[in-house]
Target: Ornithine cyclodeaminase
Amino acid sequence: MSAPMPSKLAYVPFVSVANMMRLINHIGLTEMLTGIATYIEDDFRRWELFDKAPRVASHSDVGVIELMPTSDGQVYGFKYVNGHPQNTVEGLQTVTAFGLLANVQTGYPVLLSEMTLLTALRTAATSALVAKYLALAGADTMALIGNGAQSEFQATAFRAICGITKLRLYDIDPAATQKVLRNLSDQGFELTACSSAQEAIEGAQIITTCTADKQYATILTDNMVGAGVHINAIGGDCPGKTELHKDILSRADVFVEYPPQTRIEGEIQQMPADFRVTEMWEVITGKAKGRRDERQITLFDGVGFATEDFSALRYLRDQLETTGLYDALDMIADPDDPRDLFGMVRRAGGESM
Model:
């Protein structure tokens, strides 16, 4: 007796790196960023439905490996992601990731995807979505401090969602800034390479800090931040890693995704446990105020949260039927008789077991 053919349930849609790049170019980068931002916003509006917990992290002296799970009661999702700042010395990515969605009713996976690219998209989409609520209306200039792999995605998302047209760039590695200048030279931005963080923030209504070093750092000091500025602080994402002097936090209204995680990993790890923050889901649903006036300093202490990855995967899954840009991966053992897994293996070997 021959082995049964895999059922439809055995096959899981898989989005490879190659197909993710095809999707981005097919749909358009701007359209994907705004689409993902819409899904993130929608999921923030139903925040109370989600299982929420700080990510499960395994730290070493060279980096971190993390799992980020959540569920809305119907669909379960998780992301595997690492952060190894020294990888670039060896020609490797600082961050790599993959993710999965599953049907809560059966436990069967319904999507497996690369998430190195998708994480860059969802991080940029989240940053710009938050700035839509917190930054000064009419802001057109952003300082981008830290010009690594995330930079161009941040810039594109802020242009699409917030109307940013002028970028002031700084990185301790001038080659990183030159890379951004090349990549964005034909994208309609007014680009300025700067020689210091202080120079970069001149005239900027929005400041994005996105550095990779796993250490307590002071990218911005208190005297550098003027009234009305919105700070998009997304580089801090693990214990012992920050970018801002704590005096800035004392002057600003600080907004976060999920306080129990941000107090461990974000800028506010420098502050007392009762330091006041506002959760972004409250702002988006109207339960709390975002920007109140033109002089207020707003600060998004963004560390990345599982619901945002869930939103990005949910968006991705919804694109697959119309684009067909995925592979069907024979991933789930699904015998004709669910109690006879052993027999399925025997038949596959010609009953020779």
